[in-house]
């Protein structure tokens, strides 16, 4: 069985290069092997501290919290990666296995969610496991089942996305192919009863293709034909632009609370997690889970959540923190592909680009053109290249640069853009709207003047 291909078919080697660094299949980076620890449920504070200890014992003591909410242990060797896997498996953690069917850290607990996505996601996982589909799908293939609420998954890339909506008293799911919520292609609306069938039908069709395609590579018209018996109407994308909240979060059980804490640039020393785990146990936190957009969510009584926030002042506790709107990969020297010191530049930007970083846009700092930290479009991208740093406006890291900046002048370029916004932004106008109004030509002019 085949489907219309909208993008060139990928070779086997390309699919391997796109694979994720799982615990059992670590990936080589600039500072050694990297192993990913994906969790499907919160873990105890002591387990968080233990992961930090293992990262120090087996790796170089650096841990990433990825945009999708996974721990990534860095600086491993082939031998220490095997030892890490053995030690992690001994902990009996709720490790994610097989096809990622993602629901978010607050699934089933959120006082604001439209529907609990866990029953639906569990039935999808069971189908995939029963029919052994994971190995027959493309690398990085992911399903998102978004019940809504305080931490929506709109920014995550998904091959298949279900978004809960209510019409009067009935629950439905909007279906999208590929992309983020803003860029995914709507396929229609299905009832709660038909939602599992919708996803499993698409997965089963893909699994028998000669080359298993990603969601973005499928022809929406053809997939709509597959789903015609169960889809009710065209879906409408409702992209959420409000920032994800940090700090205290309300749960459906009013006796409990949660708090979201951001990890600057998605990376910390193992000692940070060890300290956080030990302090969380002391104040009575009952569970901790890595979450979307490089963050941790802690669970417990409201007073315990507040105490752990007070203890975490160096981390991100508010969406007004400028570091919350900077997406940065590990960069140089951590990654062998990187030509940009992303974290050092991010710290400079957070301190010195106050006008630029008003919360209305994402500043994407990428060590290379892969764009690992922010695969979707960003209004401003600084991308490391061999012959300089590319500034890409309103695009992806692989798009045509607006200007190539000499290595070492990136902070100066950000200063020029910050000054442009300070002078040109209208009353009540956001930085994003200001830069969009000014356009690429005006930005290039400001950069040329600022770098001369």
Q: How are the strands of the biggest sheet laid out side by side?
A: 1-2-4-3-12
What's the CATH class label of the domain at 322-450? Alpha Beta
Mean pLDDT: 92
Report the sheet with the most strands, covering strand number, pairing sense and barrel closure. 5 strands, antiparallel
Q: Roughly what percent helix?
A: 25-40%
Percent in strands? 15-25%
Question: Rg to the nearest angstrom?
Answer: 22 Å
Alpha-carbon distance between the termini?
59 Å
The CATH superfamily of the domain at 322-450 turns out to be: Sulfite Reductase Hemoprotein, domain 1
Structural class comes to alpha+beta
CATH architecture of the domain at 322-450: 2-Layer Sandwich
Summed up, the helix count is: 11
Here the CATH topology of the domain at 322-450 equals: Sulfite Reductase Hemoprotein, domain 1
Unreliable stretches: 1-19
String of helices and strands = HEEHEEHEHEEEEHHEEEHEEHEHEEEEHH
The gross shape turns out to be globular
Number of strands: 19
